[in-house]
Design goal:
The complex is a heterotrimer of chains A (330), B (444) and C (281).
Chain A (H helix, E strand, L loop, with lengths): L2 E3 L11 H23 L1 H25 L10 H11 L7 H16 L12 H12 L1 H4 L2 E2 L13 E2 L2 H8 L9 H6 L11 H13 L6 H21 L6 H16 L3 H8 L10 H21 L6 H18 L9
Antiparallel strand pairs in A: 2-3
Helix pairs in contact in A: 1-2, 1-3, 1-9, 2-3, 2-4, 3-4, 3-5, 4-5, 5-14, 9-12, 10-11, 10-12, 10-13, 13-14
Chain B lengths: L22 E3 L5 E5 L9 E2 L6 E2 L4 E4 L8 E2 L4 E10 L5 E9 L22 H10 L12 H4 L10 E6 L8 H8 L1 H15 L4 E6 L3 H11 L5 E6 L8 H9 L14 E5 H13 L5 E8 L6 E6 L4 H7 L7 E6 L6 E2 L13 E6 H4 L12 H5 L6 H9 L3 H6 L10 H5 L6 H21 L1
Parallel strand pairs in B: 1-14, 9-10, 9-12, 10-11, 13-17
Antiparallel strand pairs in B: 2-8, 3-5, 4-7, 5-6, 7-8, 13-14, 15-16, 15-17
Chain C lengths: L1 H24 L6 H9 L12 H11 L12 H12 L9 E5 L12 E3 L5 H7 L15 H5 L5 E3 L6 E3 L9 H5 L5 E5 L4 E4 L7 H7 L9 H5 L5 E4 L2 E4 L9 H5 L5 E7 L2 E4 L9
Antiparallel strand pairs in C: 1-5, 3-4, 6-9, 7-8, 9-10
Helix pairs in contact in C: 2-3, 2-4
Classes of the chains: A mainly alpha (330), B alpha/beta (444), C alpha+beta (281).
């Protein structure tokens, strides 16, 4: 009888790569449901075409260009496609979605060597590629709940953040916080429903797919930084109204735009984020600061994607210098 | 909140199938084989010749240096061969083979089961007796116990820790021993305390052995200075450094001896062997071995004579299961898979684990997705993914800077890796290469 | 417009002078011959010469008083002859060498007794146990030597699971010798044919024979029969000294276990004259 011999350990935990990926997909479903409710058929078309094109492109590249065994079963292409879809406006024509998928999978992922080797988050590269290449298409935001059965001809309007940028801050009192929590706002189709996104966050924490470090440090930084910015602009700190409006302003910064989607699902991408918890906090704070800086002083109303991509570039540096606390060292 | 160590760790499925099995005496083997290097340190020197008659407990090989251990005959009979034979891993090593004939013991051994709680020997006599009886660490490390009880002069031990965590899945030999002989263990603990001159001892037991904790706590009231500590079930709590951290909240500095924290750690099985050696003058000739795994018909905790062929013990436990594909000496996390079942059971064997076709194989390897799981479970605070990569690429100097030598080889990283990467396989060769570099640097 | 031009020119000037100052200040005086020799060297940086890369070897040449112990195995005697006049030294002609594997433990010759599963590295297997056969000394077949060869000169034969060294590529740099955890690879004189003991088993004959059909059992017959005294026997293992071997093949025919190999180069392939291997593991 031939026995099998291998080095210890002889047992293995239950987690696999595809399980991690599918858990994130699962966590995104509530947010997707919210987008279906507010944006209707367009959300469905954009998301499905994004997932399909990402999977197909990865398959084609692996099979015919790299001539290796396709690994689309690991779920990473599905997740990239899903995230890319959620980061697009729901009235985007399919051909632009496909171009985005090519940028995401072809340029950002496969040309670096496939899963595990990419420096930048593929879905975000795809989104930013489209934002720069097709600025008009990418900044026409369908109004929530108005034209559920229209696709590219849906009625559009500005997002909250671009309104803030163009018209100033005097009208923030009129913003309905309830709408922000449930997702009744314009924007990329997956980023609107704050409660749904937080629900997914709770699920990911419960299943231990991600740790709290990155999302919490991103959100806390954005909140505190925006809060401080608005306070600094006020006249007198004794005035209780100042505190209230600064708080509202900071909360709007949290709940609008792609911050929650970015902080919970994109910044936490295993491959492009740091390995140690200390590193994750530094990375998160970096994203938070860059987001506020771009939103406040940059050319774009929204800066989460850029902030995450910039910090992606710092990840190898963080991994190199931020070491875990070694046993027995002060 | 139960105590546990502070960095990393995992909680694999416990699978303690034999937890409620009492200790069973295994039949005396027809033939035993004693390898001369079954402990850490220098191999022992054979002092018998082919054809010599030996009794149970007769010294057959003498310690070959300070860090080495005596070996005694576990059976009575005739030395039939002194030659190289293949050990469990197929490596040919010098072995004494004894054919059994009856069961005649050396007269000096007290075979009564009466409890003897009077410690008559002095400190030096105790350590001398332990060395004579060939006692080694029975948790698996097989480090000679008398060496561990005489730390370098600059360190003064302040506390004794008895390791009864048994954090490896499947294994229950320590558990069964605690339920069977609690008082002997406690007396053994008192003897060890006297040997190193301390007044305080802790017995660390993981909380998945509540009956053993309760039993020992009840009996411990009679023995001053011994405290039973229930620990949260967590692997690798049985690692010496992890256990000291869990109980004393002190971390051994990198490269330092554990005794630098004032603690000396001994396994619970060792404490029992020390009791038998000091109070009954019985050398280390038997031990409890858990036989367990998939499809084993009579799994249990067997007291076996050392040197029994592995295959013979498996026969006693009901024979090889039909689907068996891997047999492991020790637990599933740190045990070693064997290739030769004719080889003898050594002193450090705490269990024989059999895995079937479904559990014996590793999953398909996929690329590292940098999830950081290995970093977060590493109990030494290392970065296993990095160490594995550096070792694979032979970048040993860089690996040394990343503290590769601190690795315990506990396997938490490879266990948790979602990509099934052979992280520890590579770290092990990197670690031995770095140790070699350090050694040659010291020499020059 | 004018200010912009002025500012840019100033920045340009300042950086240029900075660069100049730095390059002067940190200039390292180096023997120009090092560069010259390095340019002659093949630039493989294989370390086969025993030094860390080609430049290091060039430095060693410049500092050396004779070229006796310095040889670039990749470039061989030709390169050394070009280097010698630069240094005003004499190149010593050295016989070309080739790596040979001292194991013929194919799947057919040594029965597999276990199945290994784990990282594909001989070093890992060697640290773990005896390997897939009962031989404690034989080839483990995981290809550490093939991975170590910078030139792609070693492939693991899928049928025999033994390394195959391409004599047209092998320049005897020795990286495979260092990589093999069982020390099975030896650099021997490159001659036609090459005769060597393809076994490294130091166990007693009975144990060695039980593990492998073509093991050297240390019977000493070859040593007795060798007309030139080229064969010695240590630790139950015969060794043929290649500088004394007359290639008479007396030992090859006399070896009871066929442990002695004749290795020939034909059409760029090294061919063992012994019977062909077959049967997958």
């Amino acid at each position: 009888m031939e026995l099998t011999v291998s080095p210890a350990p002889h047992i293995h935990g239950k987690r696999t790569v595809s399980q991690c990926m599918y858990n994130v997909v699962l966590a995104l479903l509530p947010a997707f449901a919210v987008s279906l409710y507010f944006f209707g058929i367009g959300a469905l078309i954009v998301t499905l075409s994004s997932i399909l094109s990402c999977v197909i492109i990865e398959y084609l590249i692996q099979k015919y260009l790299l001539k290796e065994k396709p690994t689309i079963g690991d779920g990473s292409a599905i997740l990239t496609g899903f995230l890319l879809g959620l980061n697009l406006p729901s009235n985007l024509p399919i051909w632009i979605v496909v171009v985005g998928a090519i940028a995401a999978i072809g340029i950002a992922k496969m040309s670096f060597g496939g899963l595990g080797n990419n420096l930048f988050n593929p879905a975000l590269v795809g989104r930013v590629f489209l934002l720069i290449s097709f600025p008009t298409y990418m900044t026409q935001w369908p109004l929530p709940g108005t034209s559920r059965w229209n696709y590219t001809d849906a009625e559009t309007g500005a997002t909250l953040l671009s309104k803030l940028k163009e018209e100033g801050y005097q009208w923030i009192d009129q913003v309905s916080m309830t709408d922000l929590w449930i997702g009744n706002q314009g924007g990329s189709l997956g980023e609107v429903g704050a409660i749904a996104l937080l629900l997914g966050f709770a699920f990911l924490l419960y299943r231990r797919i991600i740790s709290w470090h990155i999302p919490v440090s991103v959100l806390a930084t954005v909140f505190l930084f925006s809060f401080a910015l608005n306070l600094g602009g006020g006249e007198s700190l004794q005035d209780s109204h100042i505190w209230q409006s600064a708080f509202d302003f900071a909360l709007i910064q949290l709940l609008s735009g792609g911050l929650l989607l970015g902080a919970i699902y994109m910044a936490t991408d295993y491959v492009t984020s740091p390995m140690t918890s200390k590193g994750m906090v530094i990375y998160g704070i970096g994203i938070g600061i860059l987001t506020v800086v771009i939103r406040q002083w940059g050319g774009y109303p929204e800066g989460v994607s850029f902030a995450i991509l910039i910090m992606n570039a710092f990840t190898p540096l963080i991994n190199n210098y931020i070491k875990p606390k070694r046993f027995g060292r002060k | 909140m139960l105590k546990t160590f502070r960095i990393g760790g995992i909680h694999p499925e416990e699978n303690k199938l034999t937890a409620q099995c009492p200790v069973t005496e295994a039949a005396i083997p027809r033939q035993v084989a004693l390898t001369l290097n079954q402990h850490i340190g220098a191999p022992a020197n054979c002092i018998v010749k082919k054809g010599d008659t030996v009794k149970v407990g007769t010294l057959v090989a003498e310690a070959g240096g300070f860090v080495s251990a005596n070996i005694h005959s576990p059976v009575s009979g005739i030395v039939s061969k002194i030659d190289k034979t293949a050990n469990a891993f197929g490596i040919y090593t010098q072995t004494i083979v004894i054919d059994t004939d009856g069961d005649e013991w050396e007269e000096s051994i007290d075979r009564s089961t009466e409890l003897n709680d009077k410690i008559a020997l002095s400190t030096d006599e105790i350590i001398q007796r332990i060395a004579q009886c060939g006692i080694v660490g029975l948790g698996g490390a097989t480090f000679p116990t008398h060496v561990k009880l005489t730390p370098p002069k600059e360190f003064t031990p302040t506390v004794l820790i008895i390791n009864a965590t048994e954090c490896e899945p499947y294994l229950t030999d320590d558990h069964a021993l605690m339920l069977e002989s609690p008082e002997q263990i406690l007396i053994g603990c008192r003897i060890l305390m006297k040997a190193i001159g301390v007044e305080q001892a802790y017995i660390g037991i993981e909380n998945n052995k509540k009956d053993a904790i309760a039993l020992l706590a009840e009996k411990a009231s009679k023995y001053p200075g011994i405290e039973i500590v229930a620990l949260r079930t967590r692997y690798p709590q049985g690692g010496e450094k992890q256990l000291i951290d869990a109980i004393l909240h002190k971390q051994v500095a990198n490269g330092a001896l554990p005794v630098s924290t004032g603690a000396i750690v001994q396994n619970v099985g060792t404490a029992f062997a020390v009791y038998e050696a000091v109070q009954k003058n019985k050398p280390l000739i038997d031990r409890i071995v858990t036989v367990t795994g998939d499809g084993v018909t009579r799994p249990g905790n067997y007291r076996v004579r050392l040197g029994m062929p592995i295959g013979e013990l498996i026969e006693i436990a009901g024979g090889l299961p039909a689907e068996v594909s891997k047999i492991i000496l020790g637990g599933p996390m740190m045990g070693k898979a064997v290739s030769n079942l004719e080889a003898p059971i050594p002193k450090g064997c705490s269990g024989i684990l059999m895995l079937n076709e479904r559990h014996a194989h590793r999953g398909p390897i996929s690329p590292c997705i940098r999830c950081g799981q290995c970093v977060s479970v590493c109990p030494m605070g290392l970065e296993p993914y990095l160490l594995a990569k550096l070792s694979e690429n032979h970048l040993f100097e860089k690996a040394e800077k990343e503290s590769i030598t601190a690795c315990l080889e506990c396997g938490c990283c490879a266990y948790s890796c979602p990509s099934n990467r052979p992280i520890l396989d590579y770290i092990r060769i990197g670690k031995s290469a770095v140790n070699q570099i350090i050694r040659s640097r010291k020499q020059s | 417009m004018v200010t912009a031009i002025i500012i840019l020119s100033i920045i340009g000037l300042v950086s240029a002078s900075l660069l100049y100052i730095i390059s002067r200040k940190f200039h390292v005086e180096e023997d120009p011959r090092i560069d010259e020799i390095e340019s002659i060297l093949p630039g493989a940086n294989c370390g086969g010469c025993g030094y860390a890369g080609c430049r290091n070897f060039a430095e060693q040449c410049v500092n050396a008083t004779s070229l006796d112990n310095l040889l670039c195995p990749v470039g061989g005697n030709e390169v050394m002859k070009k280097i010698a006049p630069i240094l005003g030294l004499k190149a010593v002609e050295q016989a070309p060498r080739i790596a040979v594997v001292k194991c013929n433990g194919s799947c057919e010759n040594r029965p597999a007794t276990s199945h290994y599963e784990g990282a594909h590295s001989c070093a890992v297997v060697a640290a773990l146990y005896t390997g897939e056969s009962n031989c404690n000394y034989g080839c483990l077949g995981e290809g550490d030597c093939a991975a170590a060869c910078e030139f792609g000169g070693i492939t693991i034969d899928p049928v025999t699971r033994l390394p195959h060294i391409d004599p047209n590529i092998c320049i005897a740099c020795g990286s495979c010798v260092k990589a093999c955890p069982r020390n099975l690879i030896e650099l021997r004189r490159k001659q036609e044919p090459r005769i060597y003991v393809a076994c490294n088993n130091k166990d007693k004959g009975a144990i060695a024979r039980k593990a492998c059909a073509v093991a050297c059992i240390g019977c000493g017959k070859c040593a007795k029969n060798c007309p030139n005294g080229a064969i010695s026997l240590t630790d139950n293992l015969a060794y043929i000294n290649d500088s004394l071997c007359l290639l008479c093949k007396e030992c090859v025919d006399g070896c009871p276990t066929h442990a002695i190999q004749i290795d020939k180069t034909t059409d760029g392939h090294s061919v063992l004259t012994k019977e062909k291997e077959s049967a997958l593991c």
